[in-house]
Amino acid sequence: MQKKLTTLVMCSVTASLFAVSVSGAASPQTLLQDEQGKRHTVLGGLGKVEGKTAEARALQALEKVKTTYGFTQAQGNFSLNSSWQDELGITHTKLDQSIHGLPVYGAQMIVHETDGRVQSITGDYKQLKPDTGTALVTAEAAIQKAVAHTGFRGELSRPATAKLLYYPQGKTAVLSHLVNVAYLDESGQAGNWQIFVSAADGSIVQANNELHFLTCSPGTPAVGTGVGVLGDTKSINTTYKSGTYYLEDRTKAMFQTTCGTIETYDFRNGVGPLSYATDPDNIWNASTQRSAVDAHYYMGRVYDYYYSTFNRNSIDGRGTGFYGAVRYSVRYNNAFWDGTRMVYGEGDGTTMLPLSGGYDVTGHELTHGVVEAMLNPTYLVNIQTDALMESISDSFAAVMDSKDWTIGEDIYTPGVPGDYIRSLQNPDVGHMNQYNSSYNRYTLSGIPSKAFYNFSVAIGSRSIAGKVWYNAIRNYLTSSPNFSMMRMATIESAKALYGAPSSYVTALTNAWDSVGVY
Ligand SMILES: [Ca+2]
Ligand SMILES: [Ca+2]
Ligand SMILES: [Zn+2]
Question: 292 alpha carbon to ligand 1 midpoint, in Å?
Answer without folding.
Answer: 19
